[in-house]
């Protein structure tokens, strides 16, 4: 079987496309799809960033009128308070923290997996949701001492008490879920985009 020789001396099989788009498509078909491991490390990154950003927010809490024990999970409590300007600003800041934390997590997953950035971001979000559900179940069955998300501050706790299932609490939970989902998917796409830049550099446009 004859082969074609490129200017650099490498050989390619006849009939095999060598343009960048075709090469990337073949690589994606072979190595694409959700990567659970990459998503898990993305989730860990998101959790760590949430803790770090929440600590920074807590240190500067007096400037925005937040309590000294402000946590990501307290977004629900913020929504149940009076809709004052301070409360609204605090809630928005907490949502921004969630978005940024999960953007970072999605970016790590997308960068590690290389392909299907949106799917990697979604997988990061699903990891977080699965952990939140698991911890909520453990907390309901074994007691509040197992609700480690209260100390981790990385994802809103799922309300399991009747008193938490208020309209404000549900709205806050939905907003938090939406912020994390959008952030994770956007981060996954950004992480994947880096590899497309590398492909354009190495394979041409």
UniProtKB/TrEMBL annotation:
Transmembrane spans: 40-66, 86-110, 122-150, 170-190
Keywords assigned by UniProt, alphabetized: Membrane, Transmembrane, Transmembrane helix
Top-rank lineage group of the source organism: Bacteria
Region annotated Disordered, chain positions: 1-21
Biased composition (Polar residues): 1-13
Entry protein name: Uncharacterized protein
Species the sequence originates in: uncultured Nocardioidaceae bacterium
């Amino acid at each position: 079987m004859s082969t074609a020789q490129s200017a650099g001396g490498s050989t390619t099989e006849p009939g095999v496309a060598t343009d960048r788009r075709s090469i990337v498509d073949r690589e994606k078909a072979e190595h694409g799809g959700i990567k659970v491991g990459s998503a898990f490390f993305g989730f860990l990154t998101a959790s760590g960033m949430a803790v770090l950003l929440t600590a920074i927010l807590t240190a500067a809490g007096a400037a925005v009128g937040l309590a000294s024990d402000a946590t990501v999970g307290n977004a629900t409590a913020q929504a149940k308070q009076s809709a004052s300007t301070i409360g609204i600003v605090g809630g928005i800041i907490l949502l921004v923290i969630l978005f940024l934390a999960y953007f970072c997590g999605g970016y790590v997953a997308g960068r590690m997996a290389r392909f299907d950035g949106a799917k990697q971001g979604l997988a990061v979000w699903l990891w977080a949701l699965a952990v939140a559900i698991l911890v909520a179940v453990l907390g309901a069955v074994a007691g509040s001492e197992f609700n480690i998300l209260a100390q981790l501050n990385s994802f809103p706790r799922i309300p399991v008490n009747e008193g938490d299932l208020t309209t404000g609490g549900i709205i806050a939970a939905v907003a938090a879920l939406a912020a994390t989902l959008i952030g994770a998917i956007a981060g996954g796409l950004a992480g994947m985009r880096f590899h497309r830049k590398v492909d354009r550099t190495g394979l041409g446009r």
